[in-house]
């Protein structure tokens, strides 16, 4: 039987309302031995991005 999934994706805001989904995603990834990618939303300000061409967002994502 072929595997149903090859990858998992968790979209979360990392709030108390997301803890159940986060726990389930981690358990499912562990049980199925699959990679788990996580997406966190970014808050942006359209007026600021218009002035800076979105450079601030790129810099914040590439900083370590």
Described by strand count, sense and barrel closure, the largest sheet is:
2 strands, parallel
The chain-level structural class is: alpha+beta
- Shape, per Cα inertia axes: elongated
User: Which spans of ≥5 residues are poorly predicted at pLDDT below 50?
Assistant: none
Number of strands: 2
Determine the fraction of residues in helical runs and give it as a percent range: 40-55%
Name the strands of the widest sheet in spatial order: 1-2
Number of domains: 1
Average pLDDT taken over every residue = 81
Tally of helical segments = 3
Strand composition percent: 5-15%
Write down the secondary-structure element order.
EHEHH
Q: How far from one another are the termini?
A: 42 Å
Radius of gyration: 17 Å
Can you tell me about this structure?
α1 links the parallel β1 and β2. The N and C termini lie far apart (42 Å). The protein has a two-stranded parallel sheet with strand order 1-2. The radius of gyration is 17 Å and the shape is elongated. It has 64 residues and is of the alpha+beta class. It is 45% helix and 12% strand. The protein contains three helices and two strands. It has one domain.
């Amino acid at each position: 039987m072929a595997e149903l999934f090859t990858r998992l994706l968790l979209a979360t805001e990392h709030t108390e309302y997301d803890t159940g989904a986060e726990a389930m995603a981690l358990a499912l990834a562990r049980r199925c031995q699959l990679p788990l990618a996580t997406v966190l939303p970014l808050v942006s300000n359209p007026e600021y991005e218009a002035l800076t061409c979105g450079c601030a967002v790129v810099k914040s994502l590439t900083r370590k």
